[in-house]
Amino acid sequence: MLELKNVTHIYGNGTKALDDVTLSIPKGMFGLLGPNGAGKSTLMRTVATLQTPTQGSIQFGDIDILQDPESLRERLGYLPQDFGVYPRVSAYDMLDHMAVLKGIASKADRKATVETLLNQTNLWDVRKKAIAGFSGGMRQRFGIAQALIGNPELIIVDEPTAGLDPEERNRFLNLLAEIGENVVVILSTHIVEDVADLCPKMAVIAEGRIELEGAPLDLISRTKGSIWSKTIDRHELDSYSAKYEVISTRLFAGSTIIHILSADDPKDGFDAVDGGLEDVYFSTLAATRRNTAEAA
Amino acid sequence: MFGKITAFELRYQFKNPVFWVVAVLFFLLTFGAMTVDGITIGGGGNVNANSPTAIIQIHSILTLFFMFVTTAFVANVIVRDDESGFGPMVRSTRVTKYDYLLGRFTGAFLAAAIAFLAVPFAIWLGSLMPWLDQETLGPNRLSYYAFAYFVVALPGIFLTSCIFFVVATMTRSMMYSYLGVVVFLVLYIILIATAASKPEFRELAGYLEPFGRGAIINDTRYWTATDSNTLLPPFSGMLIINRMIWFCVSLVALVLAYKRFSFSDRGISARQARKQAKKAEKLAAVAPVTAKSLPSANIGKAAWSQLVSRTSFEIAQVFKSPAFIVLMLIGLFNATGGLLFANELYGTPARPLTFALLTTLMGTFGIIPVIISIYYAGELVWRDRDRKMHEIIDSTPLPNWAYMVPKTIAVACVLFATFFVSVVAAILIQLSRGFTDIAFDQYLAWYLLPLSVDMATLAVLAVFVQALSPNKYVGWGIMVLYLVATLTLVNIGFEHPLYQYGQTPNPLFSDLNGNAVNGAYGWWMRLYWGGIAVILAVFAHFLWRRGTETSLLPRIKQLPRRMISSAGAVMAVAALVAIGTGSFIFYNTNILNEYSTQDDVEELLADLEKKYLKYETVKQPSVTDIKLAVNIYPDELKMDASGSVELINDTGAPVEQFHIRIGDPLLNVEELNISAAKMELNDEDLGYRIYQLDQAMQPGETRTISFKTSRERKGFRATGNDTRLVENGTFLNNLEFMPTLGMSRNGLLNDRQTRRDHGLPAELRPAKLEDESARERNYGGNVDWVTTDITVTTAKGQTPIAPGKRVSDEVRGERRIARFVSEQPILGFLSIQSADYAVEERNANGVKMSVFYHPSHDFNVETMLDATEKSLAYYQKNFGPYQFDYARIIEFPGYARFAQAYAGTIPYSETIGFIADNSDPNEIDYVTYVTAHEFAHQYWAHQLISSDQQGGTMLVETMAQYSALMVMKQIYGEDKIRRFLKYELDRYLAARGSEAIEELPLNRVENQGYIHYRKGSLAMYLLHDRLGEDRVNAMLAALLEKYKFKSQPYANAVDLVDGFKSLARNAGEQQLVEDLLEKITIYDLKAEDAVVKKLADGRFETTLRMQSSKYYADGKGKETEASLKDRIEIGLFTARPGIGAFGKDHVISMERKPVRSGEQVIKIISLKRPDYVGIDPYNKYIDRNSDDNVVEVSEI
Fold first, then answer.
1. What gap in Å lies between CA A10 and CA A66, rounded to an integer?
2. Which one of A104, B342, B693, B1169 is most buried, counting C-beta atoms within 10 A?
3. Would you state the pLDDT for residue A236?
């Protein structure tokens, strides 16, 4: 549905934020996983027509986004990573205003849109309150409400769960899951669980490049037999890092559990573990870092 | 902790737009006042613009205005946390109340104090501007600024900070805080008004006036220009105590705020709780209307609702912003003050006619919309980005036009609303003064619409600049530069309206002539700038940032591609409009008319003076008869005149050359026939010709000159469109429609700075009093005594008027034709008027009196007729026969504010007597005063004309003032005359401090208004009082008889002074005449205290202790004490003279007693018990402090 071909973006200061990105994104939830600064937001903004890439082409269905951004915008719902609100404006009024901007011309349609979405996002009771006074979760729900106006065919949500408490996060992800069936939803995040819980397809981006692409289950199965785990004392971490390719560390009950990447059994007290998506992600990042280090 | 909180608060306030907006506003206000003519706050004359007095005055006035700003800062401290919801969070931390509250207060107060630094900075910067008259500037001394800032401004800012901090703490509401400011201002104004009307409260007011202004005024009341320029006010007891008192009040307020402030929420009242619960219930009761599937968008159909929604959204954002409210309040406060006193004269208010208020409204409110358009253009353009909403908005299918267009419309609507609010304020003021004839059409067509368009044009420029700027601060900076540049460019000669972005001509309003002078021109200019604004707007649209890319270059690269669009077509149409109207304007300003800059005009006048003033004393024959036919075509703005002038050589010597001056560049001389003469010089540019006579004109010989002239207003000029020949209300004098014989000083440059700039001496002074040769010329531009025969024709609907007896008046076809003949010689100073008039007539003493007035200006017509009747009666009885059988007053448009006496004919401006509000009997009835003055000129000027030398105006203006005062005395009685004298005295004392050259005694006055009008009235009144009205009048009548209708030698001041001296019966009177007429004498008469005691016989003995002195001053105001020995009136009263209904009934006794320098005690016995006693209680003497002459009597 959404086809990116050789998209490269270089900022004015020389930063190469996107490096020859080629991606094919079908209908349904698509997770874009990457650490901070990997180029996720640049990619999201580029698809959202907010900036033009230095090179490459982006196609959504029949629409060439770069030539005809107007047509894409008519089909787009976008929740940016960071957005503010106007002071002294209530949720209801703001959503109504957004509905106008998105082209819901008739008053009745707007009323239906606004009230349905407020209800759906559980904001109906606070509709007359200024958004400026909303909590982070409420604000994100408002964000998704506005992104849903006018039945978009492409929904882009950039880091929506950052800073939400678990309950709010759950509520938000449920909301996304509901809508992600018939349209393209790109969920960009650095939180592995978001993708693991929701997305049938995903990609990992790091340093502007797509490092990995596929269905989470496939990717997990690919790591089978290469992830090993050991519980160590936290003072030993440095020596293990030197010896093995440590992809993640986690504290548990005062000790440190490390996961390493190894094609063979490293012995040394390591146990084989069934890798999770997290291991896939971290091993990909580790590989990227290695490559970069070698290139340098 | 305290320091950190203060610093945080300060940083917060620096980021607050209110801080920057007000800093820029106060900078511009002050800078404008310093550098633009017409905007003044204090200063003037010999008082330097950057003198300590002026600096202090600006600081104290602006401190008062700054109240709205300090309130915004300090109330924000209290209100902010509740509004943002941060309150509970902050207050539950470990921060103490002391640190939290006072730390923040200190930060906010410091922010206000720092913002106010814009004022001294602007004064300093303004004083460096190269185009200022260097003579009006003194050295910039740090001590002046420091005194003004630290003694005057800072305590005032601290005081208002504290007071409104309490109000905010108690009310926790921005709105109530501002309400508090309004209440404070009302109380303040009442205090000022009370102190002004009750001099005995001045001392008390000095202590109690919160800003220290009262104390400073008391300490510097009678300072001369030199004092004002070089001295700081003494840090006197009164000022120190005043500052202490208000510092204590500030601290008390602060403590009170501290006590009242509580961290815990006070909790809402039961009523509010019920209200909230009800609201919540109501909200909960409504179920959402949900749809199974969401409606789809249809972007194509949403254009209109997008426009409306975007626009109203932006408008609402502006209206809700605090800076907008602060700006509006400051603007309205200033405008209200201006409107209440608009067109006041002699302290008497004018009726608040709409046309007359509009100019004031523009002047006092005008800067606010400028700030709003520039400030909010920046806010609107950057709002989405500042609020981080741009990613959401920019990714919606909102069409590109829906950015620039609604934002621009929103600014325009805000501006319209802003102007609309000022109109409402003005209308409320009209209604509050009982004036109900409100001209809504004038408000709309002359003010609301044009100014909104002008400001919208400015806003578009600001939007354009913002669209290109990397951030809004750069955009604002560029716009401020633009404002300063527009001021500067005009000053350095780049003044053509076609390249002064957004410039439209200054409108001139009149009820007679509407907005005809610059009205249409203004709309052409608006169309032109509107076209250019649309082009800029389309560029702004093309270059708008959409998305996250901010650099300009990629957008510029896309420009050519985007131009091919419907917006590009709009731009093309706008360009056509701009080119079309621009060409039309250029055709008008540069082809139909000659375009000349201010500097060009001045250069011509300077050249005229340099080349031809030397001919001033070349003797020319006198004019004896003038025959004129003048045709006025008001609809075509055209007139022509043809006529002939009879001359006689009365110089006593042969005349070889005729010097002809064409005094008005708008005048075309089509023919000028002088038989048997050769034109030797024809300077077309300067309007000067010299004819060499084939044969010299012998003494006693007569000759004739005939001429044909025309004058026409073609289209419009860039500046200086004719206000004399107009659609309705034409008023031309002979210099404006016919050539004159001989060179005179009429119309030469007189601004000292301008004269120096053009290489002329700073001033042209008249001949000395001792120069007998000056008596060959008269002070009226050396016009002669002539008989006249003038036929004036005009359009059928208008009335033509000229001096002379009207011998015929008829309508023939479309023309009205009237002939005016003067068989007796009159001064050859002629006026032609034509307008659609109503006429009120009255016959008395064989004189037909008429007032020609605009039909809706009938308010004071009866008063004028009464005044004319009473004046002529008094003058005929005392000075001799009135030479005409007619007396006319003719209204002319208020483009100028004066009344002027021609032979029996007095053009009178619509903005003085005709709209005066005489309803308060306690105010000066200046309609009668001015009318009496102008009719007095029928004697003093039109019978006796003085010589062209020092003292010349004393015989004309001073005598007219004296005559008018006598009429006022007749009408109002001797005991009410104090208010006139007091007015004249105060004006005289105030003006002499601003003298630019030197103050002269009355007999040597050099056309200095404050001397010949103001001081003249006082001197004449005292002399008539001492020497006897009848004796003085007899002497004057004899003087008139001697010089009546006589040519050279003309009367001079010596004749008059000698006349007064001849009336002196003793040395005291002799001394008084000398002191008043030949010297600059200042008295200081003071009643210290008085006690009364009841005598055994039932009478009362009043003991008055008083202090007297007399000083002689030189031309620069330096005084030396002289011995006073005079007989001065001591009066006993039952009410305070000059105030309220004081009149004859309140006078117990009034008697002259010997008074000498120093302290003196006088006992007076009276039948009635006096309440007040005073020395010179009616202020007949030129007393440096006229408010301490009367004291209340106390019981022993």
1. 16
2. A104
3. 84
pLDDT per residue as tens digits for the range B22-57: 888 888 888 888 877 655 554 445 567 788 888 888
Contact indicator for B706, B644 with CB cutoff of 8 Å? yes
ipTM: 0.89
pLDDT, position B39: 54
| Best CA proximity match to A217, nearest among A263, A258, A174, A274 | A274
Q: What percent of chain B is modeled with pLDDT above 70?
A: 96
The residue in chain A having the minimum alpha-carbon distance to the alpha carbon of residue B554 is A52
Q: How far is A25 from chain B (nearest CA, A)?
A: 20
Residues A277 and A198 in one domain: no
User: pLDDT tens-digit profile of B484-493?
Assistant: 788 777 777 7
For residue B15, which phi and psi values (nearest 5 degrees)?
-85, -10
B306 close to A (CB below 8 A):
yes
Long-range contacts for B85-92 (Cβ within 8 Å, ≥24 apart)? Answer: B85/A132, B85/A133, B87/B265, B88/B265, B91/B263, B91/B264
Of the three residues A214, A244, A267, the one that is the final residue of a domain is A214
Check residue B223 and give its pLDDT.
72
Determine the residue type at B999. E
Looking at the structure, tell me whether residues A145 and A206 fall in a common domain: yes
Q: What is the residue range of A233's domain?
A: 221-295
Comparing C-alpha atoms, which of B51, B58, B57, B5 is closest to residue B32? B58
Q: Where are the beta strands (DSSP E) in B713-836?
A: 730-733, 740-741, 785-795, 799-801, 805-812, 815-827, 831-835
Question: Which of A214, A241, A256 is at the close of a domain?
Answer: A214
Mean pLDDT over A266-289 rounds to: 82
- Cα(first)–Cα(last) distance of chain A, in Å? 37
- Let me know whether A129 and A193 are in one domain: yes
pLDDT the model gives residue B660: 94
Chain A closest-CA separation from residue B367 CA (Å): 27
Contacts of B448 (CB under 8 A, 6+ apart): B416, B419, B420, B423
What is the residue-wise DSSP string for chain A? Answer: -EEEEEEEEE-TTS-EEEEEEEEEE-SEEEEEE--TTSSHHHHHHHHTTSS--SEEEEEETTEETTT-HHHHHHTEEEE-SS----TT-BHHHHHHHHHHHTT--SHHHHHHHHHHHHHHTT-GGGTTSBGGG--HHHHHHHHHHHHHTT--SEEEEESTTTT--HHHHHHHHHHHHHHTTTSEEEEEES-HHHHHHH-SEEEEEETTEEEEEE-HHHHHHHTTTSEEEEEE-GGGHHHHHHHSEEEEEEEETTEEEEEEE-SS---TT-EE----HHHHHHHHHHHHHHHHHHH-
pLDDT tens-digit map of B132-146: 777 677 888 898 999
For an interface test with B, give the residue of A10, A50, A60, A125 to mutate (most B CBs within 10 A).
A50
Tell me the shortest Cα–Cα distance from B363 to chain A, in angstroms.
34
Interchain contact A11–B (C-beta under 8 A) = no
Per-residue confidence (pLDDT) for residue B43, from 0 to 100: 46
Q: Which residues of B touch A125 (CB under 8 A)?
A: 283-284
The pLDDT tens digits for B89-122 are 566 666 777 888 888 889 999 999 999 999 999 9
Q: Which domains does chain B have, with CATH numbers?
A: 2-265 (no CATH), 303-592 (no CATH), 595-770+777-828 (2.60.40.1730), 837-938 (1.10.390.10), 950-1079 (1.10.390.10), 1081-1196 (2.60.40)
Cβ-nearest to A73 among B291, B389, B395: B395
Per-residue pLDDT at B90: 62
pLDDT tier, B570 (very low <50, low <70, confident <90, very high otherwise):
very high
Rounded to two decimals, the pTM is: 0.84
More reliable by pLDDT, B86 or B305: B305
